[in-house]
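In this supplementary section we document a worked example of the pipeline. Step one takes a protein sequence of length 239 as its only input; no multiple sequence alignment statistics are reported here. Step two produces a three-dimensional model, which step three serialises into structure tokens for compact storage. The input and output of this example are shown verbatim.
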Amino acid sequence: MAGELDKSLLNEHKEKHFTAGEVVRDIIIGVSDGLTVPFALAAGLSGANASSAVILTAGVAEVAAGAISMGLGGYLAAKSEADHYMRELKREQEEIIAVPDTEAAEVADILADYGILPHEYTPVVNALRKNPKAWLDFMMKFELGLEKPDPKRAFQSAFTIAIAYIVGGLVPLMPYMFIPTVTKAVLASVVLTLMALLIFGYAKGHFTGNRPFKSAFETALIGALASAAAFGMAKAIQG
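The serialised model returned by step three reads:
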């Protein structure tokens, strides 16, 4: 009866938590770099008095190379995380078999840290010892703080970061596609990219729980400083 009541309460109460954190993180990584790096490159080449065609060609090449590099980095990071989880899973599994009493004591210690008394956690420890799979899952989550990664995570991360980088990278290059005069194209690129950085920064702050307006300002400031530095260095080298 109590079990049915608990299920009824769970069905009535649906918690609205944001659960797409990893995807959002990948999008943030891809778009932030995609907006900033090609923007700085285009500004630098503009400062070196390159033509719009040259800037566009170099920019597209950079976006392609950057998307591949960033996507590969995302794949390797996710793959390393999955490999680390499997190594720790195997080690923990061996320890449960080899030294079960020690592992059971670790379970008790973890529960005690939550303020649970010995007479309360002893039945839990005994129940876990009878269920090796649940015991292993418990140790991975609460002792090591590791969550089982999605097997598709590496490919999804690579794809998401690469596409996000391309989307972000094309924004500062768009004016050079339509405006042949470099001085006008670079001004249009600055305005368009700063607007995109402000919008992206605001959205990033909203989804990550930070103050959206502060995030928007910081994101736009970083992009502006990067492009200004590239433009200034190119002008200085040109003399």
